[in-house]
Amino acid sequence: xxxxxxxxxxxxxxxxxxxxxxxxxxxxxxxxxxxxxxxxxxxxxxxxxxxxxxxxxxxxxxxxxxxxxxxxxxxxxxxxxxxxxxxxxxxxxxxxxxxxxxxxxxxxxxxxxxxxxxxxxxxxxxxxxxxxxxxxxxxxxxxxxxxxxxxxxxxxxxxxxxxxxxxxxxxxxxxxxxxxxxxxxxxxxxxxxxxxxxxxxx
Length: 202
Prior knowledge:
By secondary structure, the chain is α+β, with helices and mostly antiparallel strands. Helix content is about 30%, strand content about 35%.
């Protein structure tokens, strides 16, 4: 079984960048790469600047049959602030396929998060509260873009694919440690490159 390693969260988009040549599509992929690194690093405010995201984004996030809708910048900001404050922003894909078009990004992934046995995500599961567990599931997503900016996220969760596996405690990475580990990758996705790419859509 593959265990989540936060340093691998860009592997899917990096594979796409290795073959995509269309400059506008490459810009979208680079925006997505920076977004993912900022989110897991806890720098959520930098995701929502005018060079990255439209003024009125809309997120529809489905998980285990429940859909959370964040309509507008204020609600999206509240969403990010909550997950970072709660320390639950260390997550990502075990496997990810990324495709890009004029409409935006399309993603199919096995998503994972490593948590303590006492984590609310394990409510109702037969787990040892002293243990460490990987929660994983399949999902598909559409990230529409307009003029080089993220319009929102639409996450479609496969409720029948959820699984919980006990893993070694060393697999649990704190938000602070994730930020340290991702710093070199974030340096490879500078804001200046994103800002310059917007000229393609002028």
